[in-house]
Amino acid sequence: MTITTIDPTAALIVIDLQQGIAGAPTIHPSHEVAARGGELAAAFRERDLPVVLVSVSGVAPGRTDQGGGTTRTFGADFADLLPEVNQQPGDHTLTKYRWGAFEGTDLLNTLHDLGVTQVVVVGISTSAGVESTARSAHGHGFHVTIATDAVTDTNASAHENSLTAIFPRMAETGTVAEIINALPR
């Protein structure tokens, strides 16, 4: 469903726009996605709407076909947010150790404490962190919006599947410009 409205109690959730992820070969350049995410964050801040900056600094335990699990190590600057996000003192930050930002974090309580009814989600990777967070937000009863030009993935077909098959079933979608135009004044 295309974007219809943004609630006056919306929050922006920025997923994994960080140094350790930005070097991955994504279908849309990470720094361009981060710049659009930063533009959206600035618009939320300008309207005194919450901005939640999420970085990943670990992986869930367990075996997978692609390896990983608890044996993966991360460099010292891996979780550092990209400068395009322009982190501000009033932003809410959290570190996650799973794909989704709700798993094993205090995100749900934070959003409830802030009176949030809608989340706008941007970041990397469309089919993992963004989709997992959007699914959980939808399951927790939030209105969900995805900024389609502020997400990217390392896998083009997974990215396209999320945008065309998954998100329309649980979220409204729109560009950063469309979302900014729909933000309450």
Automatic annotation (TrEMBL):
<feature type="domain" description="Isochorismatase-like">
    <location>
        <begin position="10"/>
        <end position="178"/>
    </location>
</feature>
<dbReference type="InterPro" id="IPR000868">
    <property type="entry name" value="Isochorismatase-like_dom"/>
</dbReference>
<protein>
    <submittedName>
        <fullName>Nicotinamidase-related amidase</fullName>
    </submittedName>
</protein>
<dbReference type="GO" id="GO:0016787">
    <property type="term" value="F:hydrolase activity"/>
</dbReference>
<keyword id="KW-0378">Hydrolase</keyword>
<dbReference type="InterPro" id="IPR050272">
    <property type="entry name" value="Isochorismatase-like_hydrls"/>
</dbReference>
<dbReference type="Pfam" id="PF00857">
    <property type="entry name" value="Isochorismatase"/>
</dbReference>
<dbReference type="InterPro" id="IPR036380">
    <property type="entry name" value="Isochorismatase-like_sf"/>
</dbReference>
